Amino acid sequence: MRVLLVEDEPDLGQAIKRTLNLEKYVVDWVLDGNEAWDYLENQWTQYTLAIIDWMLPGLSGLELCKRLRSHNNSLPVLMLTAKDRMEDKVAGLDAGADDYLVKPFGMAELLARLRALQR
């Protein structure tokens, strides 16, 4: 399984990548939305799913999801964010995220949600 991880917090990104690698995922990790779009635009068929932080430099995770969906890209997306208000969750899901996980979170829950997205 190949995952695009879009997370600008270095410690968290490293921890997620390490955890996913231990679970045999291949992870491409990028730090901003514009770089993520470059990866997706050129390689989207190679990814099983994407984990996208909402608050990113450049293109936000919300805008990234909207752009994916406007290009009829059905890649499963897990929105990962500190935005925990109900209105934020609704906005993220309406923008095209398939699931929404609020920080802080447990790695076991992240892995379970990724398994669910793959079904």
Describe the 3D structure.
With 119 residues, the protein is of the alpha/beta class. It has five helices and five strands. It has helices at residues 10-22, 33-43, 61-70, 86-95, 107-118, and strands at residues 2-6, 26-30, 49-53, 77-81, 99-102. Strand 4 (77-81), helix 4 and strand 5 form a beta-alpha-beta unit. The mean pLDDT is 95.
Series of secondary-structure elements, N-terminal to C-terminal: EHEHEHEHEH
| Strand content range | 15-25%
Q: Please, what is the average pLDDT?
A: 95
Structural shape: globular
Sheet having the most strands: 5 strands, parallel
Number of strands: 5
- The helix fraction, in percent, is 40-55%
- Unreliable spans are none
What is the structural class?
Answer: alpha/beta
